[in-house]
Amino acid sequence: xLLLRNVLQCCPEYDSQHGGFVHNQLKTMLELQNSxxxxxxxxxxxxxxxxxxxVWVECAELMDxxxxxxxxxxxxxxxxxKLELIxxxxxxxxxxxxxxxxxxDIATQLQEGLSDLEGTGDFRNLLESFAGFTLESExxxxxxxxxxxxxxxxxxxxxYTGYVGKNVLNFFRQDHGYxxxxxxxxxxxxxxxxxxxxLVQDLDSNQDDFKEQLYLALSQRYKTLCMx
Length: 228
What we know:
The chain is an all-alpha fold and 228 residues long. It has helices at 5-10, 20-40, 51-66, 78-97, 103-114, 123-137, 142-151, 156-175, 192-201, 210-226, and strands at 186-187, 190-191. It has a domain at 2-155: Orthogonal Bundle (all-alpha NTP pyrophosphatase fold).
């Protein structure tokens, strides 16, 4: 289980018989995603939102960060690529939740898919395979996503921490006028995503109140930089 190996080594409390630590973290992410989607629309599952479209558009943005132009020198912006993958994960979870399957069963499906050991080759080809599947099926392929994680060295622990951080930022945006258009996405010359990365580095994501600490830190920085 290549992608999960780092988690299994550092988490002795993992219990493979019951799904264990990773399974619980997957359930947590699914529950957080449902909460975020419900924050945007209480009946989100019945609205027919095109989550698959959000996925392939993010794939195009990801490709730009990785680099594809043969007529100029380009080097992959690995950290931005990882952030785009985490954004795609949000939409992928939404697609799976929309099917109405129990969260526990989806977590099991995700855990199995993320453990896939196949899928090697040029990262851009892997990304195009994933985007092509998404467009054709209008669904989310966890195994293809696992190939992308491995191709850019994004392990499960980083996925989890990055996802929770972005989920908190999404709630923060909604609470500060994102839908109404009054939210300021650029803070003192940097996007809120960049501020998020800085703030997460100063916090312990294993703390029970990590989400609350991060929200407070975002609030304080936003007030200082954007509301004075």
